[in-house]
Amino acid sequence: MIGLAARLLRHRPGTVLATLIALAAGVMVMTGTGALVESGLRYQPKPQLYGSADLVVAKRDITFTGKEFGGDTYTTTTRLPAPGTMPASLVNQLRQVPGVAKVVADPAIKDKAKPSRVEVIAITEENGADRAAVKAAVEKLAAVESAKAYGGDDKGTVERPDLAAARDLLIQVGAAFGGYVVMLIVFVVAGTVGLSIRGRRRELALLRATGATPWQLRRMLMGEAAILGAIGSLIGIPTGLLASRWMGDQLISKGFVPADFPMAMGVLAAPAAALLIVALAVVAALLAARRISAIRPAEALADAAVEPTRSGKVRLGFGLAALVGALSSSAFAVMGGGQAALGGAISMLYLLVLAVALLAPWINGTAARLLSPVLSAVWGNSGYLATRNLATNARGMATVLTALVLSVGFGGSVWFLQDNLERQTVQQVQAGTLAQYAVVSPKGLPDDAAERLSKIPGVEAATGVRRTSVIVKVFQDAEVVPAQAMDLTSALKTTDLQLKEGELTPGTVAVSQVRADSQNWKLGDTIDIWLADGTPKQLKITAIYSRGLGFGDFVLDRATLGQAPDEVLIRTSGSKPTTLAQLPGATLIPVSELTVQTAKDLAISAWLNKLLIGVMIGYAALAAANTMVMAALARRREVAVLRLTGVTTRQVKRMVNAEQAALLGVALVIGGAIAAVTLTTIVRAVTGGALPYVPALGWTAVLGGATLLAMTTTILPIALLLRKPALAQTGSRE
Hints:
Layout (H helix, E strand, L loop, with lengths): L1 H8 L3 H30 L12 E4 L2 E7 L5 E7 L6 E2 L1 H7 L4 E6 L11 E2 L1 E6 L5 H14 L3 E3 L4 H5 L1 H38 L2 H9 L4 H40 L15 H26 L2 H8 L8 H23 L2 H42 L1 H12 L5 H14 L2 H19 L4 E4 L8 H5 L5 E16 L2 E10 L4 H4 L4 E4 L6 E4 H7 L6 E6 L4 E10 L2 H4 L2 E4 H4 L5 E6 L14 E4 H43 L2 H9 L4 H39 L8 H27 L3 H4 L5
Parallel strand pairs: 11-16, 13-15
Antiparallel strand pairs: 1-7, 1-8, 2-3, 4-6, 5-7, 9-17, 9-18, 10-11, 10-14, 10-17, 12-15, 13-16, 14-15
């Protein structure tokens, strides 16, 4: 049957081409994202500075343990945003470990702000020492300070934390995005292959009626799918590798990855993508072939004459289950915050699309009944034909509806999320900055810079600000959250955090309203957080504010952080300070320059998300176009029969227009609702805003693009069919 499958492919160029496009594009995207993950997994920085040391003790991550709801213990590890430090006394303790010959604290990276603490300790063992015993003893002492002992190539991650962070970024981005892409490709491949097989019901029924066994038909269809998957892989892998190389160059040029980070060539990602796409195609073919291959030979041709009107109860059950799962994810997104809320909202988006895909036959049937008066009134007899066709072919049109909803849902939600984050952040910074000027220095500012600047004539207030991050536990995970450390005694004179409750008090912490709501924190609570270097802090919440995007989810007292400011905000009585003699080398700039730089930084950080989202939307749109072209070409016999029974070419065109208008209207309503719910949920959870911002041009592009896509990919193929003789089309395979 495999040989027969290969021969039959030659007689269906249109369907084969459409399926190949979907499979090749899927392989390309998976290869590109897989190469990112492979780059992170395969890279291990080689130690240079600590190459001669046997062990290196450092604090580069933090581990949390706790109890799950079921009583099981969980462990989660998070990389520290800044290198942690250890007390210098640990050096002497390590020297007492049996088998240790030499212990050195690297003076080049000693903590200059608390001199009694060090960042890295290198250990050399005695000749013949029991390496396992030495490492166990060192790890025991290091664990007391929440540090770890690194040996072998792992020492390179201590020496180059930037490379280790880049490695983690590639793995996280590639894995997270790759997971969503795989789910999207499952939708597309299953729909494309299934639609292709449904369009061949008569051919398959004829084979069944002439003695082919169910397993022979399934083997043939699975063989066809495997062949197409293999050919699609040969097309998609080279383009995917080129795309991954381009993406690697872009990541380096925009500062996400160091210039000396080696990007993998996809040696593992390419075959993995090929195997996955072939497996998806084969499974989709097997599932689509079950019904036509299982019926008895005598009933095969009669059964294939019409599209099945009833869908299974199993499909209905799974569809309702997906809908319930989407509601659960929405609740999680609303209650959570940050990445947890974002993950919950994206899960809700996929589950809603999955629910539509499964429930599409019932949606199409209901829509046909509800829209019947409208279609008949606008398109007359052609509208009546469109209504009857939609009702009869509700199951066959399910893939078309799903493709349209997928495009509108993705295009109208995740893309606009970045616009909302950038807009809200810049607006909050602009509205919340009361100072007119900022003092910065490329060499760094002294700890008392604000105090010195406050003595300049005309300066009403000076506030030292240090941008940082803190780590907070979220459910059973840990999240790195942006924060600012400020001189709280003068902060409200130079910034307006838009306090909702309480007041800024030295030695405490202020929390954004969104973070407080997501963590269920109240004014007066004492919370556990960890500074960027892993230092644990228990701080009392004395204020809750609204402008969390502009100023971070946490505002700390700079004394709590214990580090010099990055900048000093200055509020004057109106005149610009004429001298900065107190701070040689410092520069006075308008705060508007800081806002412009913030917008640039946001645009760079959003570039990666928009690139990945753009790939998803592009693939969804390609899938929609592909699906609708296939669905239109599969109607050649139906169109031919209508023409032979007296329906004019103009009436056929009007019927198709009416059908597409109905499908497009339903898809826009459902897809728009999914996009609105998803975007509103994310924006509310992340920014606290009640309504999302959507530019008029953006909605025009989504709605107009979906309309153009739906009409051109159906009307043009139908017009092509109408130019051919009707009698010849009744016996054509393509």
